[in-house]
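chain and backbone:
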Amino acid sequence: MELFIEVVGWIGVVLILSSYALLSLEKLGPKSPIYQWMNVVGAAGFIINSGAKGAVPSAALNVIWMGIGFYALWKMRAAR
């Protein structure tokens, strides 16, 4: 189980850093569903990892980060 938690955390790192890099390189836009999903899933990985390790501030930050991503996705869907 510990290995699973580590892998999920590292997947979260890769997703969030990749989404930021793609945004910065203008390969994705902030209103791109792919960008938002990368952040939502990445934050979920951080929530699992930091929650399991007792890192409450990190888990709380990522719950909010995930909420912002879901809100952005909801707004995009409503605009269609």
